[in-house]
Amino acid sequence: MSHTSMATLDGNEAAAYVAHMTNEVIAIYPITPSSNMGEWADEWSSLGVKNLWGTVPDVVEMQSEAGAAGAIHGALQGGSLATTFTASQGLLLMIPNMYKIAGELSPVVFHVSARSLAAQGLSIFGDHADVMACRATGYAMLCGASVQEAMDFALIAQAATLESRLPFLHFFDGFRTSHEVAKIERLPVETIRAMIDDDLVKACRTRALNPDHPILRGTSQNPDVYFQGRETVNLHYSRTPAIVQGVMDRFAKLTGRQYGLFEYVGAPDAERVILLMGSGIGAAEETVDHLVAHGEKVGMLKVRLFRPFDPSYLLAALPVTATRIAVLDRTKEPGSDGEPLYKDVLTALAQAHAGGDLATMPRVIGGRYGLSSKEFTPGMVKGVFDELTRDKPKNQFTIGIIDDLTHTSLDWDPTFRPDVTKGVTACVFYGLGSDGTVSANKNSIKIIAEETPNYGQGYFEYDSKKAGAMTISHLRFGAHPINSTYLIGNDEASFVACHQPTFLTRYDMLDKARKGGVFLLNSATPSDQVWNELPRKMQQTMIEKELSFYVIDAYGIAAATGMGRRINTIMQTCFFAISGILPRDEAIAHIKTAVKKTYGKKGQALLERNNQAIDATLAGLHQVTLNGTVTSTFDRPPVVPDDAPEFVHKVTATLLAGLGNQLPVSLMPVDGTWPTGTTRFEKRNLALKLPLWDEALCSQCGKCPLVCPHAAIRAKVFPAELAANAPAGFRHVAMKGKDFPEGHRIAYQIAPDDCTGCGLCADVCPIRDRTDPSHKALDMVEATEIHDAEQANWDFFLTLPEFDRASLDPSKIKHAMMMQPLFEFSGACVGCGETPYIKLATQLFGDRMLVANATGCSSIYGGNLPTTPYTTNPEGRGPSWNNSLFEDNAEFGLGIRLAVDKQTEQARELLTQLASQIGGELVEGLLSADQSSEAGIHDQRERVAALKEKIKGLDTPEARTLAAICEQLVKRSVWIIGGDGWAYDIGYGGVDHVLASGRNVNLLILDTEVYSNTGGQKSKATPMGAVAKFAAGGKPTFKKDLAMMAMAYENAYVAQVSFGAKDVQTVRAFLEAESYDGPSVIIAYSPCIAHGVDLSNNLRQQDMAVNSGHWSLFRYDPRRAAKGENPLLMDSKPPSIPYRDFVASETRFSLLNRTHPEAAERYLQLAQKHVQTHFTLYEQLAHLAVQKSSVPPTE
Amino acid sequence: MNLTTKYLGLTIKNPLVPSASPLSKSVSIARELEDNGAAAIIMWSLFEEAITAESESMVRFLHQQDTGFAEISDGFLPAHQDFDNALDQYLEHIRKLKEALEIPVIASLNGVTPSGWIKHATDLQQAGADALELNVYYVAGDIGQTGAQVEERYLSLLRELRGHVQIPINMKLSSAFSSVGNMVSRLAAAGANGVALFNRFYQPDIDIQGLRLQSTLRPSTSAEILLAMRWIAILHGRHEGLSLGATGGVHTAEDAIKLLLAGADVVHLCSVLLQKGPAYTALILTGIQDWMTEQGFESVDDFRGRVSALTVPNPAEFERANYLNVLDSYSISSGVRV
Questions:
Q1: Among A59, A144, A997, A1101, which is 20 to 30 Å from A564 by CA?
Q2: pLDDT of res. B329
Q3: pTM listed for this prediction
């Protein structure tokens, strides 16, 4: 056996480690939760890490998973060892090539962190829907159930594919395994070396396309031979199971870990047996061990090799005593009479029974569990075993949900825990995403797992919001490997930490605490007063559970020791100091070593600050003595206001309280239709500072509502008399200018619970007090000073009527910002650079807007549950929104346009047809309506209302048809929204086609120059020299010029905008694009935290991007060409600052200086030259004289 | 023809020295500069603030990337491995340049306070730098601060630096001193081996759209050499062993020749090389040689300082030149009896 070393890592890193070591061409594309595998591979290659054969694998990002699969197919045909990583919809895009690769018997392993497929909604979490969609491709399918197995099976699959020539799909559960951090045995290089047979590698080379030995593949076959050709591969499939088992046996000799195609655990004479694959095996094995120890005759069959499915191995592993079998599938196939694994097992047993190889046919039931990472706990496993004891056990059951609609669900005991969990220390930490709780916990696991003989496991629950995200860290430690593949449950945790005092009134954290456990709270309240800060229920629980209560003022210590607002090391120190997992001094020494490792090269000052903070923590940590009495006078407030709609009360509020798992099937919308406008019920109160308006100083320019990413500052103009009932502190002032009626007042009002405190409104405010330049018309002030008063003001503000849109001139920012935003309080990042554009579009066109949204950040903050930000105006109108896929958004939006156009056309036809019954004047008005202005649209709405009344009385088929479609007579605004990953890469083919179509759609491309939502991977919009994931060595090529490509069509309106650099141009571009009766594309510069800048500098960064020439502003309008003018107008000036200055201000660029300095300088020189020539090119185009036609007009 | 020049106690092959600029960041460009005649190279400036700020921002964006959002659990930038900080890389680059080049390599420090960073000078010396340039990029925005205090800042930084290194130190100065000459004298007395006259400050501009400040960088023009030329002419020959470098606006051989005539020991090139490439050094050098041939000069020392304050008939012209020119047009020839 080779020497092994222990490592603490997650499933993705474990699989990627083997993949990088055993391949030479790696084609990648980001998709959660598999992206990290590609990121690791890219980073290792950029650092020169070599594979088994001493060469650095070539890692290439493609434009889509379909592209990655194509590249892999090519690399295989070129004779290389190649691999890729993917999940979910990405895997589906690979399917066409998978058939080809399998048909050509090309050895390859695809590593998949299995994830749900988008159906009634998208989900990034884990189940087997994606891999099950591939079971007909001809790929062998091998499933790992743990982090250790993700590494082991990656190697077993690689060895087996070479030997069998079948391509392998190696998969493990997304998030549960891909993101679980565990202490495992790292495979030594010599083991990997020993498992890979170079003769088999050589065989791949000899089968390759090679002009020195030419061959031909990919023929087109006819009915005479195609069928026979398909049957030629049978032998390869029939012998593969034995090959895999042989590889597993060889692996066992090298590592001591013996795997089987089907592995049985449990009583040798088990009567009840369950079968499953994937991470659920961990929970099931713990349960089986427990039940067997308590004398029950139960067992479990772990399914490892799902394809080729070999019944003989299955039968050999299954105890003959098994009479009741439950097969668990982590997927759903609607319309099927059972899920795939169930049907395969059932068929195998039936065939064996019919063939005489199985004396008695057991009773077999199948069920679904764990879809989208739904919890699968020992209680649920036991629930399935219990079901098997019934006379007529339920078939096609579900476990883990309450199905009160079709009653498929089984009951389970949520409190059941196997004995093995008693020997484990469980700890739960509630933190903010940005406070570093998760990274500190990962570090703690490393310390414990690597510095002690203990095993550790970490699993992290993340948020669906990006701003103010909450995380829950679940850490387990114990003397044995930890197989608990489920969250820490109620009454289990011996340590519960609350890193943010604001959580006290929002979440019931102590339900997790076990009796006699510890509760650690970060609070600035002194330890002798903190008890009364806790809600009554929390006090009660602490008394009942006899918890020890510790308090630390982590923010105070952080501020005092120069750590700013960084509390994670402080909280980590508390954890070690209290938990006693390690001797205190030893633990502190380890934390300091880790700090030194992290900050040592960054500077002595940082190191010293951290060490001071650690020392100050020990002095500042206090235990609170409980006196056993509930003294508090308050409880957790209701999650949503009393006047919220019923659905919000029943469903949304439950989700917000973190209790969504309890919602029964009957409360779910049947077709994925969810109500809009629900973010307003989620009051998150994130801001530490809020903007305070000085109405006397304000010039009423409207810039503040424009830049606000969360629509948390609004403008309204209203008649003075309406202010009579305003709260005393409500600020308003006489409206300036002549555009508004006399006596009207204006208010700029903040929504204090919805503001994230980014400060952009105050940053953009151009008005300074002449006598005190530090004072602006908007100043950021401590939230505590104004929150309550502003809350009352906001409530009043909402009662004020919206100003008449028809009398506003939207080309003026001041006017446009009085239009109600119909996109509000999204979960986008603090200071997001994208959302102001979407919000602007909803202000200008929201009441008639249809949105097709590409998957990405904008679909996540646009449509991620629990609450959604698109909302309605007082008339109930607002954007209607859907997200199809990542790759098809342009086509999806075009389809919406086609539907609108067709129905409009038919409505117009019917109007003509029914003119005599409806009335000629109304029909004429409807048909000839000028809807180019808000007033025109308003008038058309009035006519449609009149039409509806008219046709109510007409009982003809035509009239009924017209009634159903007549609303389409009001102009619709179709918006196709997405990021650069969509528009430049995966969806470019569709973008191109839609631009060429000439149809009236508006594409809004929110260009963050990186795949933001999946964590910052390079796209073709990424600028040269920027570091991104998948471009760890800096992007070596220039940013794609999408605008130029779009302009080449000459029929499309094209604008490049940046609201922080020139807001007026942005607003003009939106209005022009929308008014253009053809395809329009707006490419919008959107600073993102992925750039390595704090977004409080969002506006400055936009400015620098424009001034450095990185981002030119222009508008190309085909209407100008039609008038004989140059269609291109430049809206920005030649570069006025060095590109170097722009680059120096963003870590995405400056990081390359540290990692690859020569390349950084080379790219910078090239980029500097490029921005200058690029601007010149555009300027020259904009100044070209328009040629008069030399061809004389024909008669 | 002998072009050699004494500069900071070093003998260099000619008087053309590319000043601190990003060109030195690439070894191959540095070699190209050498091949085209550069006699020494001043590396880009290691900024005091940059070292601190970069450490802070790297920590902020690489080690504190947590978002709490499931799809971005590891943050945005790939940085699992540790890497060198700005100083480490600078030292490494000195070593690389020393290996690749035969001409002297001069390290450049840019800072305004005598805090711990100045100790890094020892590292620069150890890494093989032939000399150090200290660029005190300081704008006295505090109107309570006196000129004397500003000057003392320069002197104390120099003394601090002198305490750490033995290699020659060049002081790059701005022209914003009440008495440049006196300042240079005091720096010489405090241990400076040379001065570079003058530093160009970036000038902030105002963006009238955004109603805010914006930074600008306009490359120098030949017109700017006149500022340095005056002071070099005045200072030439005044301090034994103090090198005079002319910087800011040298774009042509004519510019360089004028500065040498004024008394510069070396002429620094920057904007022109950024605009026209490293090979332009050779063109300027050839221009100087052609002019020398034309004028019959055998060595640079033959004409250095020929038109300095020490040598011109009326040195006051360097002080009040234009004014005097105006007066001259009214003065009567000395050969005419009145």
A1: A1101
A2: 46
A3: 0.89
Range of the domain at B233: 5-311
Q: Spell out the alpha helix ranges (H) of chain B.
A: 27-35, 48-58, 86-100, 120-126, 147-162, 180-189, 225-235, 253-262, 271-276, 280-295, 300-303, 317-328
A275-307 confidence digits (pLDDT tens): 999 999 999 999 999 999 999 999 999 999 999
pLDDT, average across residues B262-282: 93
Using CA atoms, how far apart are residues B336 and A959, in angstroms rounded to an integer?
A: 114
Question: Where residue B336 falls among pLDDT bands split at 50, 70, 90?
Answer: low
Tell me: pLDDT of B108 over 90.
Answer: yes
Enumerate residue ranges in chain A where pLDDT < 70.
Answer: 1-4, 601-603, 1187-1195
Interface of A with B in 1050-1109 (CB under 8 A): 1061-1062, 1089-1090, 1092, 1094, 1099, 1103, 1107
Residues in B closer than 8 angstroms to A604, CB to CB, are 116
Which of B61, B205, B207 shows the shortest C-beta gap to A1147?
B61
Catalytic residue among A13, A61, A65, A180: A65
Centre a 10 Å sphere on the Cβ of residue A453 and count the other Cβ atoms it contains: 9
Output the CA–CA distances (angstroms, integers) from residue A1094 to A432, A707, A832, B337, in the order listed. Answer: 17, 16, 10, 78
How far B167 CA sits from the closest chain A CA (Å)?
Answer: 26
Would you identify the CATH topology of the domain A684-818? Alpha-Beta Plaits (3.30.70)
Residues 6+ apart with CB under 8 A from B311: B305
Q: Delimit the domains of chain A by residue range.
A: 5-216+225-254, 261-399, 425-624, 640-675, 684-818, 1009-1182
The structure tokens listed for A578 are 């209290």
Closest CA to A95 of A131, A119, A125: A131
CB-CB neighbors (< 8 A) of B214 in chain A: 1103, 1107, 1136-1137
Q: What is the CATH number of the domain that holds B269?
A: 3.20.20.70
**Domain formed by A425-624, architecture:** 3-Layer(aba) Sandwich (3.40)
Q: Are A554 and A626 in contact (CB under 8 A)?
A: no
- Find the catalytic residue in A398, A883, A1013, A1066: A1013
Q: Does B78 touch chain A (CB under 8 A)?
A: yes
The answer as to whether B338 is a domain residue is no
- Fold: same for A261-399 and A1009-1182: yes
Note which residues in 810-869 of chain A have CB less than 8 A from chain B. 829, 860
> What ipTM is given for this predicted complex?
0.85
CA-based nearest distance A70→chain B, Å: 26
CATH superfamily of the domain spanning A640-675: Pyruvate-flavodoxin oxidoreductase, EKR domain (4.10.780.10)
Do A460 and B52 lie within an 8 Å CB cutoff? Answer: no
Is the CATH number 3.30.750.24 carried by domain A261-399? no
Q: Which of A22, A23, A32, A377 is catalytic?
A: A32
- B142, part of any domain: yes
B69–A1158 CB contact, under 8 Å: no
Burial of A559 from C-beta contacts in 10 A (0-12 / 13-18 / 19+): middle
| Phi then psi dihedrals of residue A287, to 5 deg | -70, -45
Q: What is the pLDDT of residue B87?
A: 83
Q: What is the CATH number assigned to the segment(s) A5-216+225-254?
A: 3.40.50.970
Residue B141 lies in a domain: yes
Structure confidence at residue B82 as a pLDDT band (50, 70, 90): low
**A439: closest chain B residue by CA:** B66
Say what the pLDDT of residue B23 is.
87
B56 in any annotated domain: yes
- Write out the two tokens for A905: 């056309």
The pLDDT of residue A135: 97
Residues from chain A contacting residue B72 (CB–CB below 8 Å): 466, 1013-1016
Cβ contact, residue pair B71, A1140, below 8 Å: no
Q: How many CB atoms are closer than 10 A to CB A788?
A: 12
Q: Does A460 touch chain B (CB under 8 A)?
A: yes
